[in-house]
UniProtKB/TrEMBL annotation:
Family: Belongs to the TonB-dependent receptor family.
GO cellular component: cell outer membrane
Name of the protein this chain belongs to: TonB-dependent receptor
Subcellular location: Cell outer membrane
Keywords (A to Z) from UniProt: Cell outer membrane, Membrane, Receptor, Transmembrane, Transmembrane beta strand, Transport
Lineage: Bacteria, Pseudomonadati, Bacteroidota, Flavobacteriia, Flavobacteriales
The organism of origin for this protein: Aquimarina aggregata
Length: 922
């Protein structure tokens, strides 16, 4: 009988307790701390709260407004955005806990577990709820690794895995650490931080051993008890000791494991590669890698896997840079001190990028230091460079300003050559960036860039060209699974020619292209084996094809202004990275692009079945402003797959098809800063391509060596070329001079890198071919009888060897050897006389080649002392460019002397060019 009375008493107590928990509260406070709010509740009720003060001190700005709300609901809302849980016990007492929950029961078999177990992970209680239990005695034995609690336990949760995310940054500089390796529970789970230092990883509930390993940073290790989704930011200290230098820092393991292979260039270590006149140039470093080359020593474009120079998308903080070189490509137009990350995609372009066929050069500037004033600079024989960083709001925002300039005129004026006395060659570029961490989850960046070149070499013409770029980017993390980036940018490229001769034909000629773009990109981490990228983008082109105006009262030049061109390019994209198994991963994506050629414009319509010329124009159509002239577009598929044969060996395959709606106009064999751009319209179709690639990647001797071999095959259509003798400058009917044909390229790329030791560097070799076909039913629109012929940038053999030897921590020697097959050219093969005049007979287009190119450069680096406390760190670079004095021809041209055709060649550096540069950093 007593037994039943006791049970009845317990039921009554629980009923009264349940009724008490339904007590209604009216509470209104604004910007108050949690402790004060709990005191208000105690004053209104019989409840008493028990907690440790330090747990709730951080919650000091809470506003609530409740009216007749049950106390359980009040506490749930009050503690929703905290890591505090609550638990009712009898006699109106409420226990607050941090992170964890109080359980009424333990899982079945809990007391039968092994005594050596520290944690029972992923156990289930009777209500199928996730729970975390820790053996206190065992857990306190190992005190060498600090324990961190993350997340807030929920008795309603059923998941056994949660997402941990955060940022990794450098304590000394405040800058994010990209490509930092995060390893959890040994080697069971690992991720790599992105450019912004952000990471996301899915982990099992309970205790996890969390380690961070980043180059030149001290190792970091913590025990994390994970109760739910949460965030954990890590600040790493720099290592005091110096590490062996690595110029290309893409780790071998990353190259093996990543699905979309990208080439990353270490900006800081590019200083060790000897280049012309001691200038550091990350894009020149890129040309020493397989698959990336140029048409000549003074060429401002890049050819990637047999593609034209206009088929590369060069981005600086999401803003397009149309000409990234100074002075015909001898110097870089991008300040190396301002760059933080350089990534190049050439085998499979991610779906988020579009508008170019061959590659994407994605360059991002580094963040300015938010902690202290810093600077970096260099002084050389031709150029000077300075970059300054200063905090605005310490720990949150900062600004970076950099400038470079050339003072080459003194060199030209000091030469004995009389024709160079009045020559000039100067350039400058400036860059500024503002970065602001608005909140823990929101970051703003604004970048502005301007470059300008002025040159006139033995000429009465002054050439001026410049780039302008601006971007505003906002990165936001919604939660542990969703992030977004909004980027708005504007870019402009233009050139001008000022002609001041001895005749009455003085003029000014100008050209410009301007684009404004918007891109919104989202990332969604569904789980550790499935990630999504999706978004939209759009850009508006405004192109001034050219104008010429007379200068001076006596000039007889007729003014002319071509109609502007406008086009709108838009796209939506979606991609997913899918782990099918632990060894097999796919990255699949689709991008749907739409291009609208817009008025105000006039367009010629030609007769069908006849060649295009002025006589075959059937009619001319007029289009109003913003009226759609023509629409192009379609789906672009991006697919990659990686299979891990072992920890250090993988096979990758990829396929992608792309559209390009903008073209360059040039009848030169090498890229020139006065090349103009042309938008697709009624008569010029967009370029299209398909590329297949298959490669094998291997990591040898624990990352000391990286080995890769990849083959590719690419086909393209509607590539732009010109009729022989075409006139393209200020041509109102340019489509008459244009030929659009097919292209194909194929090749094999080999790369061997040594990344550790006193001797390090890489050997890159490419065998590739690039062909063009210009076929037509009409003879005058056919080149080389309609057969495939080598493109202007077809160079079958391309070999680069970059080696560095470190004698001590302060002294090192660097060498750079380059060999390339001479590019194709068209030679005169005979002459004939007609009506008393001599004419040359030329070979088939690109039938011959100029001599092969090879060059050896040597550089010696002298580091300053490595004392920690000093005004500035400095180093000297002494280099000799073209140490062998090889007279490598840039081009071959022909003149007629005494009735005979004579071939001549031009070169840029035909003798060894020594230089010495002083660099400093504080």
């Amino acid at each position: 009988m007593k037994k039943y009375l006791g049970l009845l008493f317990l039921i009554c107590v629980q009923h009264v307790w349940a009724q008490q928990k339904d007590v209604l509260l009216t509470l209104s406070v604004e910007n108050s701390d949690l402790s004060t709010i709990l005191s208000h509740i105690e004053e209104q009720t019989d409840y008493r709260f028990y907690f440790i003060d330090s747990w709730i001190q951080e919650y000091d700005s809470i506003s609530v407004d409740f009216k007749d709300i049950p106390i359980t609901t009040v506490l749930e809302e009050l503690l929703k955005e905290t890591v505090i849980n609550f638990h009712f016990i009898e006699e109106n007492r409420v226990i607050l806990t941090r992170n964890n929950s109080i359980y009424d029961a333990v899982p079945d078999g809990f007391f039968g577990r092994s005594k050596d177990s520290i944690l029972e992970v992923n156990s289930q209680n009777k209500n199928n709820k996730s729970s975390v239990f820790v053996d206190a005695k065992q857990f306190t034995k190992n005190t060498t690794v600090e324990t961190i609690k993350i997340g807030k336990a929920s008795n309603n949760a059923t998941s056994q895995k949660f997402v941990l995310s955060g940022y990794i940054k450098n304590v000394q500089t405040g800058k994010p650490i990209s490509n930092g390796n995060i390893i959890v529970n040994g080697n069971d789970t690992g991720v790599i931080t992105d450019v912004a230092g952000f990471y996301q990883v899915e982990l099992p509930i309970g205790v996890n051993l969390f380690e961070v390993d980043a180059i030149a940073m001290e190792k970091f290790k913590k025990k994390i008890i994970l109760y739910n989704d949460g965030q954990y930011n890590v600040s790493l200290n720099e290592k005091i000791e110096n590490l062996d230098e690595v110029i290309l820092r893409t780790s071998a393991r990353n190259a093996v494991e990543e699905v979309i292979t990208k080439t990353k260039i270490d900006v800081e270590e590019s200083k060790n590669i000897p280049l012309a006149l001691g200038e550091r140039d990350v894009l020149k470093v890129a040309t020493t890698l397989p698959g990336i080359t140029t048409t000549g020593e003074a060429s401002s474009g890049y050819n990637v896997r047999g593609g034209k120079s206009d088929q590369n998308l060069i981005l600086l903080d999401d803003a397009v840079v149309y000409n990234p070189q100074h002075f015909f490509g001898i110097f870089s137009a991008l300040n190396p001190f301002a760059l933080g990350d350089v990534s190049i995609y050439k085998n499979n372009i991610p779906a988020e990028y579009g508008g170019r066929l061959s590659s994407v050069f994605d360059l991002t500037t580094k963040d300015a230091s938010v902690d202290k004033f810093k600077g970096e600079g260099s002084i050389g024989p031709i150029t000077g460079n300075i970059l300054l960083e200063a905090p605005i709001v310490k720990g949150k925002s900062a600004i970076m300003i950099g400038g470079r300039g050339a003072y080459a005129n003194w060199v030209l004026n000091s030469l004995d050559e009389e024709s160079l006395k009045n020559s000039e060659a100067s350039f400058y570029d400036v860059i500024a960036k503002y970065n602001h961490q608005i909140t823990e989850n929101t970051k703003l960046e604004a970048m502005a860039y301007l470059s300008r070149d002025d040159f006139s070499i033995t000429s009465d013409s002054l050439y001026i060209y410049n780039n302008r770029a601006f971007s505003l980017r906002i990165d936001h993390r919604f939660n542990d699974k969703n992030t977004a980036k909004l980027a708005v940018s504007n870019s402009q490229y233009k050139f001008n020619i000022d002609f001041d001769g001895d005749t009455n034909r003085d003029f000014e000629l100008g050209y410009s292209i301007d684009e404004t773009a918007l891109r919104l990109k989202f990332k969604y981490l569904y789980n550790d084996g499935l990630k999504f990228n999706y978004g939209v983008s759009s850009k508006l082109y405004t192109l001034n094809p050219g104008n010429i105006t007379p200068t001076g009262d006596e000039s007889i030049v007729t003014p002319l202004t071509l109609d502007k061109e406008r086009g709108l390019e838009s796209a939506a994209f979606l991609s997913a990275e899918i782990d099918v198994t632990s060894n097999l991963t796919f990255d699949t994506g689709i991008r749907y692009s739409v291009y609208n050629a817009l008025g105000e414009a006039t367009q010629n319509v030609f007769q069908d079945g006849v060649p295009r010329n002025e006589e075959t124009i059937r009619e001319t159509l007029s289009f109003d402003k913003n009226e759609v002239i023509e629409t192009y577009g379609g789906p672009e598929f991006r697919m990659s797959g990686r299979y891990l044969i072992g920890d250090n060996l993988s096979i990758k395959a990829s396929y992608n098809n792309t559209y390009q709606f903008i073209h360059t106009l040039s009848n030169n064999t090498t890229v020139s800063p006065i090349d103009t751009w042309k938008l697709s319209d009624l008569n010029i179709k967009p370029q299209r391509s398909q590329q297949y690639a298959l490669g094998i990647y291997n990591n040898l001797k624990n990352g000391m060596y990286e080995l890769s071999l990849e083959g590719f095959y690419k086909r393209s259509k509607n590539t732009l070329d010109f009729k022989t003798g075409a006139e393209i400058l200020l041509n109102e009917d340019i489509e008459i001079e244009v030929l659009q044909g097919k292209g194909k390229a194929y090749g094999v790329e080999f790369l061997l890198k040594k990344q550790k030791g006193k001797l390090y560097g890489w050997l890159g070799y490419t065998y590739s071919r690039s062909f063009v076909q210009l076929d037509s039913p009409f003879r005058e629109e056919r080149v080389n009888n309609g057969d495939f012929f080598p493109s202007n940038f077809d160079k079958p053999h391309d070999l680069s060897v970059v080696m560095n030897y470190k004698f001590t921590k302060r002294f090192s020697l660097a060498t750079n050897f380059v060999y390339q097959t001479g590019r194709p050219v068209t030679f005169p093969v005979g002459t004939f006389t007609f009506n008393g005049s001599d004419f040359a007979v030329f070979s088939d287009r690109n039938k011959f080649r100029i001599p092969d190119y090879y060059r050896l450069d040597i550089g010696f680096n002298i580091e300053g002392t490595h004392k920690l406390k000093k005004l500035a760190h400095s180093f000297w670079t002494i280099s000799i460019y073209n140490v062998l004095g090889r007279n490598n021809p840039l081009s071959v041209f022909f003149v007629t002397e005494n009735g005979k055709v004579k071939g001549l060649k031009s070169s840029v550096f035909s003798v060894p060019v020594p230089s010495i540069t002083y660099n400093f950093k504080f």
